[in-house]
Design a protein that fits this description.
This protein is of the alpha+beta class and 414 residues long. The chain has 13 helices and 15 strands.
Length: 414
């Protein structure tokens, strides 16, 4: 049952860092939420209006609070549990669309900040950006992926000065992809399938068969810099998200059955912010802008799942962004381990030694550092017996020591 909470002027409803899974609605009064901007390290405040929700992201995502909520004048709030919020949310179409767009804009803002740092302020337009994605796949010998992006480029930008070079890259990549496929066996059935989440079982009904799309290993489902025209639900298999940074495609995430991707561009009419490709055989449901609103309002649980997805991605991207604003390379590498520890906490909170299933290349990508520089910093840690490096994993002997390095080293903003 929702509770009516009365707060006096100067009261703190919750502090940044608190683990508090309540959602609030300001009924009357004045409440501000304050946080610290990751990039500038300056305070940021936002006043909550009467009737607005606050505390939603951390409650739905089960994360620590990102901001402090302070009462500026005597106020009355409605306190909801997550379940109570979900009940209200699922029956209010206007609220569903409003919150999805708000969270989409927040995620887009974090993406933009990260891109500015990773690209060092360079303005990359859609055409040159799409070409750089194709070139990066070519350089990595990802022939099928390269051919797909080249084809998308040629269809979208015919008659450009680069057309001849792109056609040549397409022909070469396609021939090599066909040659490679003859020497590798691939299953006709995608690995993995939706399981466990009853709310997603509805998508296994025959009515959704017309939305089914199947993809082969390495096939690009959506390419970074393309317009956003569809979004997807993975039914079977896994999908890799990569982002082109300074001419290299860097891994962002691996998505599994039951997860969505591409939904952000649907909501804010912006170009794709990442490339999504099939790892093995993949089966997805493809939805477009025309049926997006109908889909989520007709299936409230789907809208709620997308909202939770935004909460998780906003939190994850902000955490990754914190690494990028650290100038000191050793502290950057140390903070990668801190992030991995936070995202996969041990069963015993007092456990010091952690094994992370990551490679040196993975750490370099998380830290956005050259591979050679990352290897140099990791070797320094290994020489000091702070870590042990193996081919497919890295052992951190004392995770608290990594946190101390981050806290004590210079973290001057870029």
């Amino acid at each position: 049952m929702p509770k009516v909470m009365q707060y006096n002027k100067g009261a703190i409803i919750y502090f940044a860092g608190d683990h508090d899974e309540r959602v609030f609605i300001l009924q009357k009064g004045c409440v501000v939420i304050s946080s610290t901007d990751i990039e500038s390290n300056l305070p940021v405040t936002e006043q909550i209006k009467n009737g607005e929700f606050f505390g939603v992201k951390s409650a739905l995502g089960h994360f620590p609070r990102e901001e402090t909520a302070t009462v500026l004048m005597d106020s009355v709030c409605i306190s909801l549990t997550v379940q109570e919020f979900e009940n209200i949310f699922s029956s209010n179409k206007a609220l569903i669309l409003k919150m999805l767009r708000v969270f989409s804009n927040q995620l887009r803002h974090v993406h933009t900040q990260m891109e500015e740092i990773l690209n060092k302020g360079k303005d990359v337009n859609r055409q040159s950006g799409l070409l750089s994605v194709a070139q990066a796949f070519y350089d990595d010998e990802k022939w099928r992926s390269c051919a797909d992006v080249c084809l998308a480029y040629l269809k979208r930008y015919p008659g450009t000065p680069d057309e001849g070079a792109v056609k040549k890259m397409f022909v070469t990549s396609q021939a090599r992809a066909e040659s490679a496929s003859r020497f590798s066996a691939s299953d006709t059935v995608a690995e993995g399938a939706i399981s466990g989440d009853k709310s997603l079982k509805v998508f296994e009904l025959p009515a959704f068969d017309r939305f089914t799309k199947k993809y082969e290993p390495g096939q690009v489902i959506i390419a970074e810099f393309e317009p956003g025209e569809s979004f997807y639900l993975i039914q079977k298999g896994t999908v890799q998200l990569v982002k082109c940074v300074n001419g290299q495609n860097k891994n962002l995430d691996i998505l599994k059955p039951g997860e969505f991707f591409g939904e952000m561009a649907i909501l804010d009419n912006s170009p794709r912010s990442a490339t999504c490709l099939a790892l093995g055989n993949v089966q997805c449901l493809e939805f477009n802008k025309a049926n997006f609103e109908l889909l989520i309002t007709g299936n409230p649980q789907i809208a709620l799942n997308i909202l939770k997805l935004f909460c998780k991605r906003i939190y994850d991207q902000k955490r990754r962004f914190k690494i990028l604003v650290i100038q000191d390379p050793q502290a950057r590498v140390a903070d990668v381990f801190c992030m991995l520890n936070e995202m996969n906490p041990p069963a015993n909170p007092n456990e010091k030694q952690r094994r992370f299933n990551v490679t040196v290349q993975d750490v370099a990508q998380w830290a956005a550092l050259p591979l050679q520089k990352t290897m140099e910093e990791l070797n320094n840690f290994a020489s000091a017996r702070k870590i042990e490096i193996f081919e497919s994993n890295i052992i951190v002997n004392n995770i608290a020591a990594m946190k101390r390095i981050v806290d004590t080293r210079s973290i001057a903003r870029q």
